[in-house]
Specification:
With 137 residues, chain A is of the alpha/beta class. Helix content of chain A is 26%, strand content 19%. Chain A has a five-stranded parallel sheet, sandwiched between helices. Chain B is an alpha+beta fold and 555 residues long. Chain B is 58% helix and 18% strand. In chain B, helix 1 runs antiparallel to helix 4 and helix 12 packs parallel to helix 13. The chains are: A alpha/beta (137), B alpha+beta (555).
Chain lengths: 137, 555
């Protein structure tokens, strides 16, 4: 089992996508856990045990911190987990550069499970055999 | 005209008058020589005197300061030679003696001392008639001199006033905010205290208040005011309309009772300027203070107008900043909406992605899993779609659109025509604009937002310019209770384009242009503005001719 933390306030919009991705590429061996708000991420040390942390940079407008603040907090951990940025903003790359965080991969919304897998696979390689076989159209 | 140019022209005029005056002296002299039966010299002597007078004058014509006195001495010497041994009390002779005195106002040197002219005239008369002269014969000189002195004084004050205005202009050109922030008072005080005014009084402080319905609001001051106490009743009771003396004021915990108030009314406001006066010459101040302060009024009228303009500009900047803020708010909302849309699009994108992938799945178990997921994703996709549409509607809702017309007000037909004509003439020929409105309709009004109307007309003329071929014109007329504007344009287009223009024209007339997203953003914008101002509008395309008609309801 690989553990994936998804810090996203609208997880319900992405649940289907992550489930298909799990099924198609990881034979349901991924265990997702959603952290919908800032309060839920404390204590931050809990993320040390995850195999991947997906952080939405545009949290709720009411949120006192944005995703990049969370990334900065994650960077302070003793064991920094692999981090991927999930965003609807086209200029997130610039934003990360400005905050001196250029090294993270970005998944731009809206994304398909295939697109998400392209990025995720760098951190969690797929299972030996694909779950599904498809015919070539 | 710049102040220095004004000064140059004034000096130039004086020099020219000075030459004309010498010509008059010569003509007058020869009138005496020809009409007098007896002359003291031979004609060629007079010719020599005249020639010598002309030559010496020409050499002294540019003499400045004390040397200009030489020109006066020359005039009196010439007069002396012409009148030598003649009856001084003959009317034409005595007037000739006084010519240099009458010329005072045109003198090329504005600082000329009138006493010197009278002294020279007295010496002249004494030299011509010294044997028979009595002391009382000089008394009329005193009366004349007194009158001349008053005129001289008036002219000096007039020049001081003009010079002060020029100095203030210079300061305002250098720093337009100096009137609003009170810096200008430093220049004012420096000028007054360094001028002839300082022989009568000096100014040590200036404070400006705006009179808002009897309440006096501090506008600015020469010195920083930390604390102030002013009994405003003092300002209400003025015996002279625009002037009040001995005003008491406590500023920065010091009490003064020597402020003079000058009251200025501008187009939209009333101001009072308090000047702290230190009297230098009590007698002269008592005699002519009102006259002196009155001559300071134009300087304060100028400052008050600048203050008012600055305040108007500040208010305008504030309005623009508010407008900009609202525009930015609108743009921000739109940007947030797009980010929101990107999030909400995810279930839809996945739904279609899964559906597409399912076409190629052959394994029944997998197909069943996908089918289950698709059913789960479908309501999420639908909900997302609804949310996206709702947000899109919010963004497009005109009530939150920053372009919404917010300040409709009645506008006179003349102002309306002037605005349109000014905008029209930027791009088109003068004879292409016609206003067929009779004077009886000039004062009628239409309800419009003036700023929006200006933008609207600019947009229409830009559109006409963009598609024009040979001929364009605009006609303003009054028909059936409406002010109608017809813009006619000869389109630069071929057959296909004409069909497109006809379609767009029809969409514009029927409002369809607002319902569908079109490429004609300019016309959509124009139609939106017109609808918001309740202006009925239509476009007709016939052949290559396009006519836009706008009807503004008369109030």
């Amino acid at each position: 089992m690989k553990r994936v933390a998804i810090i996203e306030n609208e997880y319900q919009l992405f649940r289907g996508m992550f489930e298909i991705l799990n099924f198609k590429y990881y034979q349901n061996l991924l265990q997702y856990e959603n952290f919908p708000n800032v309060e839920s991420i404390d204590p931050i040390e809990q993320f040390q045990d995850y195999d991947l942390v997906i952080v939405d940079v545009n949290l709720s407008p009411r949120s006192p911190v944005d995703g990049i603040d969370i990334v900065e907090r994650l960077k302070t951990l003793q064991r920094v987990p692999p981090i991927v940025i999930f965003t609807g903003y086209s200029k997130t790359e610039e934003k990360l550069l400005k905050r001196d965080l250029p090294e993270y991969d970005i998944i731009v919304k809206p994304a398909t499970y295939d697109k998400v897998f392209e990025t995720m696979s760098k951190y969690i390689p797929r299972s030996q055999s694909p779950t599904i076989t498809t015919t070539t159209p | 005209m710049t102040p220095s140019r004004y000064q140059d022209i004034d000096s130039e005029l004086r020099i020219r008058f000075s030459r004309i005056y010498r010509l008059i002296i010569i003509l007058y002299a020869w009138y005496i020589i020809f009409t007098d039966s007896v002359n003291s010299f031979k004609p060629y002597d007079y010719v020599a005197f005249t020639a010598l007078y002309g030559v010496i004058y020409w050499n002294l014509r540019d003499a400045k300061g004390p040397y200009s006195l030489l020109r006066q001495i020359l005039d009196f010497t010439f007069i002396f030679l012409v009148l030598y041994k003649k009856d001084i009390f003959d009317i034409k002779h005595i007037i000739f003696c006084f010519l240099p005195l009458f010329n005072y106002a045109n003198h090329s040197n504005i600082k000329r001392n009138p006493f010197l002219s009278y002294l020279l005239a007295a010496i002249l008369i004494f030299s011509l008639k010294y044997q028979n002269l009595r002391l009382s014969d000089f008394l009329p000189f005193l009366f004349l001199m007194l009158i001349d002195f008053l005129e001289h004084f008036r002219t000096r004050v007039y020049h001081l006033k003009n010079s002060l205005l020029r100095e203030l202009d210079k300061m305002l050109i250098k720093n337009i905010d100096s009137a609003a922030n009170g810096e200008i008072y430093k220049e004012f005080i420096k000028y007054v205290n360094g001028s002839k005014f300082a022989k009568v009084f000096k100014v040590s402080d200036v404070i400006c208040f705006e009179d808002i319905a009897g309440e006096y609001r501090l506008v600015n001051s020469h010195e920083f005011i930390g604390t102030m106490t002013l009994d405003v009743d003092q300002l209400h009771s003025t015996s002279v309309e625009n002037f009040k003396e001995a005003i008491s004021l406590v500023t920065n915990e010091k009490e003064y009772n020597n402020y003079v108030g000058l009251f200025i009314t501008t187009e939209h406001s009333k101001y009072v300027f308090l000047l702290r006066i230190d009297v230098v010459n009590m007698l002269v101040h008592w005699l002519i203070r009102v006259y002196l302060y009155e001559n300071l009024l134009p300087a304060f009228v100028k400052i008050a107008n600048y203050i008012e303009t600055s305040q108007d500009m500040k208010r305008m900047r504030f309005r623009m900043a508010s407008q900009l803020k609202s525009n930015l708010g609108y743009i921000n909302d739109a940007v947030f909406a797009l980010h929101f849309v990107r999030n909400k699009l995810n279930p839809l994108v996945n739904y279609f992605h899964m559906e597409e992938e399912m076409q190629s799945i052959i394994d029944d178990n997998i197909m069943s899993f996908y089918d289950h997921q698709l059913k789960q994703e479908k309501p999420r996709a639908r909900a997302s779609l609804n949310m996206i549409l709702e947000r899109a509607n919010n963004v497009l809702d005109m009530k939150v659109n920053s372009m919404f017309i917010s300040n409709p007000a009645p506008m006179e037909v003349t102002a309306f025509i002037t605005m349109l004509r000014t905008i029209w003439y930027v791009d088109f020929e003068h004879d292409s604009f016609k206003a067929e409105v009779t004077p009886s309709n000039w004062e009628k009004k239409v309800m419009v937002d003036a700023n929006a109307l200006e933008v609207l007309f600019s947009d229409i003329t830009s559109n006409i310019k963009k598609y024009r071929n040979l001929k364009q014109d605009s006609l303003v007329s009054i028909k059936e209770g409406s002010l109608e504007v017809r813009f006619t344009n000869d389109l630069k287009a071929d057959g296909n384009n004409i069909q497109k223009f006809k379609r767009v024209a029809s969409d514009f007339t029927t409002n369809k242009i607002l319902q569908e997203k079109q490429t004609t953003h300019g016309l959509t914008f124009i139609k939106t503005f017109l609808n918001q101002m309740n202006v009925s509008s239509s476009i007709e395309v016939s052949g290559k001719q396009c006519v836009m008609s706008l009807k503004f309801k008369l109030l």
